[in-house]
Amino acid sequence: MISIQEIRQARERIQSYIVQTPVLRMHTLDHYLNCEVYIKAENMQVTGAFKLRGALNRALSLSREELERGLVCASSGNHGRGIAYAAKLLGTKATVVMPNTAPAVKVQAIRALGAEVVQCEASERFQVAERICEAQGATLIPPYNDEFVMAGQGTAGLELGEQLPEVNTVILPVSGGGLIGGVSAALKETLPAVRVYGAEPAALPRYSQSLAAGEPTQVPYQQTLADALVSQQPGSKCFPVVRTYVDRVVPVSDEFMLKGMKLLLTEGKILAEPSSCIGIGAVLQGLLPVDRAEKVCFVISGGSVGISQLAMLEEVVL
Amino acid sequence: MISIQEIRQARERIQSYIVQTPVLRMHTLDHYLNCEVYIKAENMQVTGAFKLRGALNRALSLSREELERGLVCASSGNHGRGIAYAAKLLGTKATVVMPNTAPAVKVQAIRALGAEVVQCEASERFQVAERICEAQGATLIPPYNDEFVMAGQGTAGLELGEQLPEVNTVILPVSGGGLIGGVSAALKETLPAVRVYGAEPAALPRYSQSLAAGEPTQVPYQQTLADALVSQQPGSKCFPVVRTYVDRVVPVSDEFMLKGMKLLLTEGKILAEPSSCIGIGAVLQGLLPVDRAEKVCFVISGGSVGISQLAMLEEVVL
């Protein structure tokens, strides 16, 4: 379990390198989502996603010797970009192992930061990363199953609690559980009355099933347009945190996730990647109870999306 | 000339119907624009553009009898949507005369508000609107050349001055001069040290030429992708205000305007219509002097853009 102290320490460690992203009141979305809508815009974070928080917190906790041997990670994109940015910032090298299915825009962004990119099958990416680490003596920074990483992501929750202490409900995208673990711990330890909900792809309902089973459970790999939410099981270190602090996790269809993305873009004027809109999709799909008078904040986790990917929204009906 | 008192009265009149749009710090754009970048996000205004401010201020100044006979306007889109929304809100009818070239997304939005849309050649739209007014006894609300309208748009400047009193430079899109007239008056009367710059399409340099000539001058009609900035001459009531308060207006190419739009969308994660990005285009094109240490706020005037229009950004090189 991570503690609120670890999250506060993470903030001390990383805050001069990141931005405090804005919490925005989205009036134009109220009508569609039937609540008072806010977003925490982590798509406006340096590197375009919250992932930099955890990556930096882990990297800044290494010794000088460890740091000099380099950083390695397996990532569907945003964590890799965070690691690549952290390595550049701290003067060391990074190797990022990415699935073949990662969007080109994410691969390019990581290469542009000077990191080496190795691509492989999504299911093999952790083994490939471990092999590289052993060969180079470098440090593997996991995308979620690590207490420093989780505490780093939790700093977004500390900020949100200060920026909008009157918030009633916070809704986050879920994959391995690093973001929702850190943020739910930060929120519930500082604002105990807040409800925290998670939204995960219906194709990969690893938390819905694991929470029902009472233990981390692996789900079979299935395709989803939520390219940042592809983990097949909860992180073993994330699961107990999520079970303690998160009120509910719901599985959301790709169709409703894309409706959420189109709504946020065309009515809210905010560009986010598909995965980051899954919480809005959950409410549109009627999976989460929200109320007209409630202040609901969606954590918009990232914005790594290319112009060419937006064409898929043309036929989406709101 | 409009006074700061008229702008303050406008604010009293309209503030319960509009939102105070956020001023956002855009860290990710600093590197591209070589200054500390902020935006005033009027694309997040109710109806998706600042135009509602002026439309409402004029409509709320009419007598009950005048209001009941209906509102009419000629508009390339956003003013029409503001009028349509104001009419619905105040329980009267609206007729909006639009150029044949207006984007479908704007036409649909206006019809959805219950207004009647009449389409014609862009050059004939004011005559058509006047004919409808005479036939119906309705009130014509000009898109810019009206003191109530200009004072209404100026309320965005009052807000900005309070939200970011340390701002050094404010850059706005320019067409007839309603927005920049109202906002420059509000800013210079409350924060005299602020610089205010305008950016207009190079195809229709009506202010660049009129300011050089010392009087309102008509320019020949030419095509531009800046579909919200198509006036051929300064408003006679706007010109003296702009001449008094605006430091400089520069003509910007469509190419750099689209670069600005792509930059704001892909790096800033904010969707705005092409016309609204012309100020960013002006800085990218090197037409306006800005400095690394300067706080520069771009007024992002509107966000009425359809998904299908975004494909044109694919080939734009930043």
Structure description:
2 copies of one chain form a homodimer. In chain A, 41% of the residues lie in helices and 15% in strands. Chain A is an alpha/beta fold. Chain A has a 6-stranded mixed β-sheet, sandwiched between helices. Chain A has a 4-stranded parallel β-sheet with strand order 5-4-3-6, sandwiched between helices. Chains A and B meet through helix 12 of A and helix 12 of B.
Strand residue percentage of chain A: 15-25%
Which assembly state applies to the chains in this document? homodimer
Biggest interface, chains and residues, is:
A-B, 28 and 28 residues
| Overall pLDDT of chain A | 96
Alpha carbon gyration radius of chain A: 18 Å
Low-confidence stretches of chain A: none
Largest sheet of chain A: 6 strands, mixed
User: Order of strands across the biggest sheet of chain A?
Assistant: 1-2-10-7-8-9
H/E element sequence of chain A: HEHEHHEHEHEHEHEHEHHEHHE
Number of helices of chain A: 13
Shape of chain A: globular
Content-based structural category of chain A? alpha/beta
Report, as a whole number of angstroms, the end-to-end distance of chain A.
40 Å
- Share of helical residues of chain A: 40-55%
